[in-house]
Specification:
The chain is α/β, with parallel strands linked by helices. It contains 20 helices and 19 strands.
Length: 582
């Protein structure tokens, strides 16, 4: 029996980290037969950002992906990443929804639930763990690793003991930003092995260049399972190469027993598949030691690149990376893993673009108010006060946040019945809607069109030289969307999405007689906070937009009667007029 077992991350975390979770199921299935024969402990293939991205960008049903992968991988357990009480969304859910989700995931093919809480608050872990236990599946408790004054070896050991008592089958150290140093990994695993009797798995991103050494030292200290990924999807913001670890341990007491020749066949397949996603590929392909300070996880880096591109502010990346640790401290040192990584990262982007804490996202307010659980350290009291005032709360939430959430599954089911116009919607559809109520309705409408298809793209042809009085025409790809760009002789630039003229509702033109309310950042208008034509006061919240997966309020810039210029569902650019006050 192999001393060290490996979990391969090609089907989930690797493409989430390298190309924004865009891999489609059709590119996974052809290699499943060989993956299934390789002898992995597990294949991490579901959860994390895959659920969101499948519906939002790929027009794929994430549940159908799970079922198809399970059918293609009869001998290898599928592992999913589950965010405890957050499940796969960005808020806490009622206990009945958590239980229903875990039951459905187990029924559709998940055999190992890797459950974590971004704040390492066991109260947010327990309901999901208990639900998984009832299904008879493997419960892996993941500790979110960070390097702050409040994340210590002693705290990790204490947490591991608590998770074992709750019923964890194994323990994972989730080093999402590559911060776990090799010798610290050795000492941490040694300490954990003395404290708990369950197997230990190490998950470490290669962003900072330390992950291979970290895995080796963790194995020497007694870790039984290591997370790796097939080489074409390794390194950069991803993980250590599977073949490299196999060869390092070959012939030693830690021999994995995996066949390198079979792994090379798997690698050859993914080397070709990777070409389909070049346009989404992260620019962080080497070792980025700035992460030792900013602590940004691998998956967050590639997503943040896309977010800054959307805001037209990719040149602000360094400033955002410097701002992140300041926000993290102000917010009580939460570890940077979804959803807190997105909350802290988006707030850092807003701070850089608009000024520090000029705008707090809805999720930032909830985190500051304790609605996500207990942060490791005290928070900035001025920010907590600001959040409590905005939420109309007298004090921070100190009990389990989900205790405030009444059962909600039946209500969600009723909404889906109405949405789909059917009497008994599948539980999976109800749960998809529960996770992403703004994304799922549109997905349900388009589901029958089938999933997106990605193919290698030829290099854009060089622009034809323009005459002295002629416009030059280019095709420019921005964040996966082709734009026809026309540069007029005077230098003016006009852009139109190629083939996407009717992508969003049209925005109205200001009358010119009122005060404009601009969108502070690029995003999507999701709802109005007041009625059309209402009398509003300066500073009153009038529109809610979704930007960078977070909700942001837009305030009235003057008092008067409001006229909305951007319909709900409209994608708006930074500083675009979204309302007029007369």
């Amino acid at each position: 029996m192999a001393k060290i077992k490996l979990t391969d991350l090609a089907l989930r975390d690797a493409h989430q980290s390298l190309f924004a979770t865009r891999m489609v199921t059709a590119d996974m299935l052809p290699i499943c037969d060989k993956l299934d024969k390789a002898g992995y402990f597990a294949l991490e293939a579901w959860g994390g950002a895959t659920f969101d991205t499948a519906m939002r960008f790929l027009n794929e049903d994430p549940w159908e992906r799970l079922r198809r992968l399970k059918a293609a991988l009869p001998n290898t357990p599928i592992m999913m990443l589950l965010r405890g009480q957050n499940l796969l969304g960005y808020r806490h859910y009622a206990d009945d929804v958590v239980t229903k989700f875990v039951e459905a995931a187990a029924k559709n093919g998940v055999e190992i639930f890797r459950i974590f809480d971004a704040l390492n608050d066991p109260r947010n872990f327990k309901t999901a763990a208990e639900a998984a236990k009832k299904t008879g599946k493997h419960i892996q408790a993941a500790i979110s690793y960070a390097t702050t004054p409040f994340h210590t070896r002693e705290k990790y050991v204490e947490l591991a003991k608590e998770y074992e008592k709750i019923g964890a089958s194994s323990l994972a150290i989730k080093d999402m930003a590559g911060l776990l140093k090799p010798y610290e990994a050795y000492e941490l695993v040694k300490a954990l092995k003395k404290a708990v009797s369950i197997p230990i798995e190490i998950h470490s991103h290669s962003t900072t260049g330390m992950s291979v050494a970290t895995l080796v030292k963790a194995a020497e200290a007694g870790a039984e399972i290591l997370d790796t990924v097939i080489s074409p999807l390794a390194m950069g913001t991803s993980h250590s190469p599977t073949e490299t670890i196999v060869e390092i341990f070959k012939g030693t007491e830690y021999d994995t027993g995996l066949d390198t020749n079979l792994l090379l066949e798997i690698a050859a397949y993914f080397r070709e598949v990777k070409k389909n996603y070049k346009k989404f590929e992260s620019g962080f392909l080497g070792a980025d030691t700035r992460i030792l300070v900013s602590q940004v996880p691998g998956g967050m880096l590639s997503n943040m690149e896309g977010q800054l591109k959307e805001q037209g502010a990719l040149d602000k990346m360094d400033a955002v990376l410097k701002e992140i640790p300041l926000v993290q401290k102000d917010f009580g040192y939460p570890s940077l893993v979804t959803p807190t990584s997105q909350i802290v990262g988006t707030q850092a982007v807003l701070n850089v673009l608009q000024g520090r804490y000029v705008n707090l996202t809805a999720e930032s307010k909830d985190l500051l108010a304790g609605k996500y659980g207990a942060c490791p350290a005290p928070k900035n009291p001025d920010l907590v006060k600001k959040a409590l005032e905005a939420l109309k709360l007298e004090k921070e939430v100190t009990y389990r946040p989900a205790d405030d959430i009444p059962a909600e599954y039946e209500k969600l089911e009723a909404e889906v019945k109405k949405l789909l116009a059917i009497a008994s919607p599948p539980v999976e559809d109800v749960l998809s809607y529960a996770m992403f109520p703004k994304i799922a309705p549109d997905f349900f409408k388009k589901r029958q069109q089938g999933p997106a298809v990605f193919k290698p793209e030829p290099d854009a042809p060089a622009a034809a030289p323009a005459g002295k009085n002629e416009a030059a025409k280019y095709v420019v790809n921005v964040n996966g969307v082709n734009y026809n760009v026309v540069v007029a002789p005077a230098g003016a630039v006009i852009t139109v999405p190629a083939g996407a003229a009717d992508a969003t509702p049209a925005a109205a033109t200001p009358s010119g007689g009122g005060t404009i309310v601009p969108a502070p950042v690029a995003g999507t208008v999701i709802r109005y906070a007041v009625d059309e034509g209402a009398q509003v006061a300066s500073g009153e919240t009038v529109i809610i937009i979704e930007s960078m997966k977070m909700e942001l309020e837009i305030k009235a810039t003057a008092g008067g009667k409001i006229h909305f210029l951007a319909p709900t569902g409209t994608k708006v650019t930074a500083q675009q007029p979204v309302a007029e006050i007369v």
